[in-house]
């Protein structure tokens, strides 16, 4: 019994070589793309930072270029000189308080992440402000959302511990870091917090402050009846005019001009009863023939 070596068909061998070349080309392309992007910006705090956000922050033609377009030196000479020394600092995911926490409900999730990331900006080693990045849902690409010219806030967000959350309280214009169930104010705003505070205490303080009575505007007792009267008048006008407008619009769309209603026809006058015909005269009786006269006697 003889054994013969089975040869690989030529088309199969060519297909294998083609796949190997494509795989090598894709590997080289990926390495080249990573080399162009460069090292991503530093991240430390809790919350994920997508690769595209890191790449946008590190790309000189990305975040820094957009800052220069919007806040750079203009034709009038005013603005910030985003020169070659401009650098982007630590990226931090932004969190906000949940609705349950704000409402005073005991919850295991007091904060929730947002589609926002902070990036401190320095020029000539001087911190000048805080850039806020978001991913535009329409383009699914990172973009500059805002720029806060607050060097103190930017410095505070340049070194956030890895086990902390960056929390933004937009309602009170405050920024915090949250770690081990304790809030530390970075910017107090109108929160009334001056130092580290337990999370539960801050929740109770928010509830107490939200329960303060709100001053009613003067002349409110007069404004309310007048508003009710105006609304009632508008409602009456709408009820009267809407049917007519709809009818006119329907006539215009149908190409039929509005025509006046026809006048009612006059009722016919009753016919006069015919006069009775005169009775025919009674027929005359025929006269008897005259007798001949008797001859005279002789």
Please provide a brief summary of the model:
The protein is of the alpha+beta class and 298 residues long. It has helices spanning 10-37, 51-58, 63-71, 99-102, 151-156, 199-210, 220-254; strands at residues 87-88, 92-97, 111-123, 126-136, 141-148, 165-169, 174-179, 182-187, 197-198.
Model description:
Mean pLDDT is 76; it is low at 1-8, 23-40 and 212-226. The chain is 34% helix and 20% strand. The chain starts with 9 loop residues before the first helix and ends in a 44-residue tail after the last helix. It is built from 7 helices and 9 strands. It is of the alpha+beta class. The radius of gyration is 50 Å and the shape is elongated. The chain has helices at 10-37, 51-58, 63-71, 99-102, 151-156, 199-210, 220-254; strands spanning 87-88, 92-97, 111-123, 126-136, 141-148, 165-169, 174-179, 182-187, 197-198.
Descriptive tags:
single chain; 298 residues; alpha+beta; 9-stranded mixed β-sheet; 7 helices; 9 strands; 34% helix; elongated; disordered N terminus
What's the Cα radius of gyration? Answer: 50 Å
pLDDT < 50 stretches: 1-8, 23-40, 212-226
Please give the share of residues in helix: 25-40%
Q: What would you call the shape? A: elongated
Can you write the helix and strand succession as a string? HHHEEHEEEHEEEEHH
SS summary, helix count: 7
Structural class: alpha+beta
Largest sheet data: 9 strands, mixed
The average pLDDT is 76
């Amino acid at each position: 019994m003889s054994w013969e070596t089975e040869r690989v068909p030529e088309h199969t061998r060519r297909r294998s070589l083609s796949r190997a070349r494509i795989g090598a080309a894709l590997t080289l392309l990926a390495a080249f793309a990573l080399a162009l992007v460069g090292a991503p910006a530093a991240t430390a705090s809790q919350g994920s930072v997508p690769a595209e956000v890191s790449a946008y922050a590190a790309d000189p033609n990305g975040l820094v270029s957009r800052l220069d377009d919007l806040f750079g030196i203009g034709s009038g000479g005013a603005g910030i000189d985003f020169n070659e020394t401009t650098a982007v600092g630590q990226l931090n995911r932004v969190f906000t308080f949940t609705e349950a926490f704000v409402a005073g409900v005991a919850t295991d999730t007091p904060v929730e992440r947002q589609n926002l990331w902070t990036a401190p900006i320095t020029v000539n080693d001087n911190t000048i402000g805080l850039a806020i990045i978001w991913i535009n849902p329409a383009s699914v690409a990172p973009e500059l959302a805002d720029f806060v010219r607050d060097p103190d806030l930017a410095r505070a967000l340049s070194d956030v511990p890895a086990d902390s959350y960056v929390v933004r309280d937009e309602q009170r214009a405050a920024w915090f870091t949250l770690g081990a169930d304790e809030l530390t104010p970075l910017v107090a705003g109108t929160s009334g917090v001056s130092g580290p505070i337990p999370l539960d205490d801050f929740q109770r303080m928010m509830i107490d402050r939200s329960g303060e009575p709100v001053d009613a505007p003067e002349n409110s007792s007069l404004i309310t009846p007048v508003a009710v009267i105006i609304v009632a008048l508008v409602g009456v006008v709408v009820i009267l005019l809407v049917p007519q407008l709809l009818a006119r619009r329907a006539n215009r769309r149908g190409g039929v001009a509005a025509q006046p209603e026809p006048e009612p026809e006059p009722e016919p006058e009753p016919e006069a009863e015919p006069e009775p015909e005169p009775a025919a005269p009674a027929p005359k009786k025929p006269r008897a023939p005259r007798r001949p006269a008797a001859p005279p006697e002789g």
